[in-house]
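Structure (tokenized):
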């Protein structure tokens, strides 16, 4: 079985990070967690989750940028063997299947990178009604609480460790974000298979409001952070993130996801001609 080393950045995800780490521990060899200055109990939850697999790597209040993951990578680089895999784990995401299936396909194709198909789960009008009636509780797994989703994009998540694989953590005028993915002396070949990934970014009113505050603070330190949250610079109303359930898909926790035709058309129109269009390569097959 191939070893998978995960890097997880966390900030203000105390209601879900323990679930995330427990789930990922079932297929990861090590998970290194870097808390970048949470104001909630995230770091306490990480320390409670500590094990031979889950490593509380660092707790430091630092401005977010993608190069922080590279700092962790470079610190653990000597522990990664050629043929191992690096997994970029977000604190609110759950792969919908064991990634070793994708790894087997990638290795058969000679690929060094595996992307995920991102399915974003939303707090909907139906969930809001349940919440108002006192029927929603964080005591239940997030997979039971939030069921309505839509496909959003592809993300870079797994990378095969090779001897020439490096990940610079520099940030400068030419590279204001930090490197999004490890870069080697050659372009990484992407696997044809995409692993489905459940992203629970909107979970309940308190969490959504804290998420918005956290994202706006990150944008104040670097305007290139979370560019898709630019509207937070002026509007912090969490209720505009309540999604209409009738426009979303319902997930039965069975590994089967839908991408409706109208979703494909909308994404095609939105990203056609942009540099991000390659992330939706399934649209042009």
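Design, position by position:
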């Amino acid at each position: 079985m191939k070893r998978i080393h995960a890097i997880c950045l966390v900030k203000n995800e105390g209601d879900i990070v323990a679930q995330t780490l427990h789930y990922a521990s079932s297929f990861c060899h090590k998970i290194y967690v870097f808390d970048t200055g949470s104001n909630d109990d995230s770091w306490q939850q990480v320390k409670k989750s500590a094990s031979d697999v889950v490593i509380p790597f660092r707790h430091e209040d630092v401005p977010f940028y993608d190069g922080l993951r590279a700092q962790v990578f470079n610190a653990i680089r000597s522990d990664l063997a050629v043929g191992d895999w690096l997994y970029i784990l977000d604190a609110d995401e759950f792969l919908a299947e064991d990634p070793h299936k994708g790894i087997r396909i990638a290795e058969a194709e000679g690929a060094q990178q595996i992307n995920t198909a991102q399915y974003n789960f939303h707090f909907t009008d139906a969930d809001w009604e349940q919440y108002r009636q006192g029927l929603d509780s964080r005591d239940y797994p997030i997979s039971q609480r939030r069921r309505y989703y839509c496909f959003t994009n592809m993300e870079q998540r797994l990378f095969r460790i090779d001897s020439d694989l490096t990940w610079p953590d520099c940030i400068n005028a030419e590279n204001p974000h930090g490197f999004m993915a490890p870069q080697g002396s050659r372009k990484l070949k992407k696997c044809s298979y995409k692993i489905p990934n459940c992203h629970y970014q909107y979970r309940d009113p308190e969490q959504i409001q804290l998420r918005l505050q956290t994202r706006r603070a990150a944008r104040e330190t670097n305007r290139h952070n979370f560019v898709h949250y630019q509207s937070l610079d002026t509007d912090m109303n969490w209720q505009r993130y309540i999604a209409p359930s009738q426009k979303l898909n319902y997930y039965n926790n069975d590994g089967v996801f839908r991408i409706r035709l109208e979703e494909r058309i909308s994404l095609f129109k939105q990203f056609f001609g942009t540099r991000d269009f390659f992330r939706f390569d399934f649209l042009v097959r």
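Reviewer-requested clarification: Residues 205-221 form the longest helix (17 residues). The mean pLDDT is 88.
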